[in-house]
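hey so u asked for the seq, here:
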Amino acid sequence: MASSFHVFLFSPLLLLICVSRAQTSFRPHALVLPVLKDPSTLQYITTLEQRTPLVPLKLVVDLGGQFLWVDCDEGYVSSSYRPSRCRSAQCSLAKSGACTGTNTCGNFPENTITSTSTFGDLGADAIALQSTDGSNPGRVVTVPHFLFNCAPTFLLQGLATGVKGMAGLGRTRIALPSQFAAAFSFHRKFALCLSSSTTSNGVMFFGDGPYILLPNNDISKLLTYTPLFINPVSTSGVSSQGEPSDEYFIGVKSIKINEKNVILNTSLLSINNDGFGGTKISTVNHYTTLETSIYEAITKAFIREAKSRKITQVASIAPFRACFSSKTVGVTRLGPAVPFIDLILQNESVWTIYGANSMVYVNNDVVCLAFVDGGLNPRTSIVIGGYQLEDNLLQFDLATSKLGFSSSLLSRQTTCANFNFTSNA
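ran it, structure tokens below
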């Protein structure tokens, strides 16, 4: 790798307009994309259009991803593609210090499902998606020079069939939220509402609310807020010393099951100077992953509380440990009738995980606690996975560094599949 490109150090640049504004007199309030859970991989897939002429692209949603990366090896044809030239403002915006022999700068696109990284050229091309008033999709808008990384085809290994790359929503200036906000001059906010269905779309909004789900529920009004934290050490596959993480961390202070405190090693709940510990939110981990001692404490407490409800424990089914006879578990509007789990967050706000997000049916007879053991010394102590996010609204406010969360929308008699994708344009 080192022989194929040279590394240049950039002095700080005062950047002018770094993302080309959409060439239209119409300025959207917000943008909207569908998100569908792939039935075979359980990855969350969105679709947008790129290139000239426009081509629909299926992309895996990567909440902590640094940018959009796309397979450019197979069938990438576009009259509007422009490589980013070394030492340009685009390269500086992307924090790219790598320059190839073709005078093109680049980054290291990462398949976070397989933890594989490689070098890829930085370039810009047209992207199109629908605007929204919060209740319906509206007019299609275009960002003519949207920055992204080209990746080789092999980086797609492990991704769902038909996917052509990954859509990064992380804290960088070239991730989707920041580029859309710069292009259309709206708030650096985005919201994610993942559907539990593999046949009905969830929804992703870029910009501020309202976020309206049928039957006319503005779910942006349901949000409770907690601070977002920055891990001072990068968690990406390739990084520079002193570079912070682009992923989204929150402060879990304690955990309760049925309102009873779970005894934990609380030092694991903070991020240490080496970047280990803490809690992050992920769309590439499907199930919440816990450091071993936390996993064992929560599993033990959950089993104890389940037995007090006369729920019968059965043999474990990998990768889950706490499994129960479904015949002894009732069903409610909030999913299986099991002990609820409270995450007590930094400002004493409470994210409650009900049965629909804590339990998974592995077959007709067995339902298991949908958490997995992350090992003894994981990089991050708690990784809240996609399954625990389903039918919850999450709003990420990058300008004020806070997370808005709704807990389960099932308690409000709606779901993330209830956005009306019938266009009003």
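The radius of gyration is 22 Å. The longest helix spans residues 292-308.
lmk if thats what u needed
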